[in-house]
């Protein structure tokens, strides 16, 4: 996965479709990131934080009992073991350092499940930046512990009551804030979405997941790569970071969407939130509301590089139904003693089903466990009765 | 950055606004949300008769990121009432107003319909111009050319953060008028005219012969008159739509517009 083409394009997808007020800020961010990413001192500071603060590298865990159950060899990349409990920390530490480098003292962020909001609040606290997080009212209700966490970390949380009151509307509100505050504020986008350079920038900050996993797999597999690499996809940041490490191997790359938010599976090309990508929309172009048990995957679009990887056939995009996700959630807990977040439980649900049908027995399947399930326990308890 | 159709003259919207401006008038463009209520065309006609030089019609979109609470609510209400882009255009085709109509909407509706098809649908409905606030110059090349060949003036926006060289390119490529966004922020009323509105208007009028209209944050007749000391005209949206959402009928809406007209003509 290379740098995007002119104008921030991945094939026909990507671009920078933002109000004129934001165009200079996107250009400034592109220049700042390009310089920082080539700056050894910036990389060393980020790597230092990832190691000493976020807990990297995260291990790859061999799932013996789950593998026996499924008939394929399952490895988990353990992003659930990072500080704040998901891969989101990789991105926010990089963006917070960038914000400081650009002289911006205020971060704003959107969040769905709250994992990115918590991570952004954490990075802001660490670097002494102020932080405000937009979160749909539906999500503040189902993830109230994360709302409290963000407030403990010193962030201000703004519940968003417009539209579907989920992640899509939180992005709208964050963009509206940024249009007004762009001179002092960095918009810390949580996924590989939005206007150029965000999809590229966030993928680069997340590629540590895939790069580490590839080394670790080779060590574990005597120099070989996994046969199948699987990650869940909402906007698609953990998948993009994971795929970046394996795109030039022979591994089959599989992104798993929520059935109710399958922009790759059921969407059509469109332009929303600064990017040309795949979106769930009606005949006229009105954006539809996604529906999923997982607040983190409750988004009607997907990052433009995924749209491109799907269009050229390098990655496959499938979906998982809520019921199967709950079963996979329980299965990992019971067989491996790991409670996953509902988001990566989608990836596990697909592996569970595909192990019976299409993945050859004995194949090695790497799954990125993008986050831990603590935030979802209350919700799952309510659903399972 | 370059104009998609350099040298291509503006169309009907631009010639109407230029003629009024060159005749010494300040330009008044009220904004109405298309499909807001069953009698929305009555408002269009009343506002036209009250002294508008053109009327901006919002085609409601599900995710209006440049709009503040008032236009958001108007868009959501209209969508909840079942309005579609085709429905708004069908209405405009029968509006029978003498001033040019310019639509404002978001780019996804144009992308979904296709540039060529949408441009011709606009032209067929009698629409003279189009404003797409999330389609900046760099992404607009094809749309500018397609709209021009259908006879629709594609209006570009300038912002307080736009640097000079970029502003030159925007001035060169915009047709109809130049929409100067008066402040950093989304649409909505403000207590005072932002200093950025006059500063940007001055930067724009210094470098283009196109009519320069300031919109976003122009809330009253006084603010309109103040910014028009520098600008060629104003777009007024939220202040008008808020009155309609609050129950103002076509006559009351027209009286507000007429008040702004009187202030600009004074």
CATH class of chain B: Alpha Beta
**Biggest sheet of chain B, in brief?**
8 strands, parallel, barrel
**CATH architecture field of chain B:** Alpha-Beta Barrel
Count the domains of chain B: 1
How confident overall, as mean pLDDT of chain A? 96
Shape of chain A: globular
**Helix fraction of chain B by DSSP (H/I, runs of at least 4):** 40-55%
**Biggest interface and residues each:** A-B, 39 and 42 residues
Number of strands of chain A: 14
| Shape estimate of chain B | globular
Task: Give an account of the 3D structure.
The complex is a heterodimer of chains A (385) and B (266). Chain A is an alpha/beta fold and 385 residues long. In chain A, 46% of the residues lie in helices and 19% in strands. Chain A folds into two domains: 10-49 and 88-198, 3-Layer(aba) Sandwich (Rossmann fold); 55-86 and 208-384, Rossmann fold, CATH 3.40.50. Chain A contains 15 helices and 14 strands. In chain A, α5 runs parallel beside α7 and α13 (322-336) packs across α14 (342-357). Chain A starts with 8 loop residues before the first strand and ends with a helix. With 266 residues, chain B is of the alpha/beta class. Chain B has a single domain, classed as TIM Barrel. Chain B has helices at residues 12-22, 40-49, 69-80, 85-93, 107-113, 115-124, 141-149, 164-173, 195-205, 221-227, 238-245, 250-265, and strands at residues 27-33, 55-58, 101-104, 127-131, 153-158, 178-181, 212-215, 233-236. Classes of the chains: A alpha/beta (385), B alpha/beta (266). Chain A binds chain B through residues 7, 15-25, 162-163, 168-169, 172, 175-176, 179-183, 268-274, 276, 279, 281, 283-287, and chain B through 61-66, 68, 72, 76, 79, 84-86, 107-113, 133-139, 156-163, 166, 170, 181, 183-186.
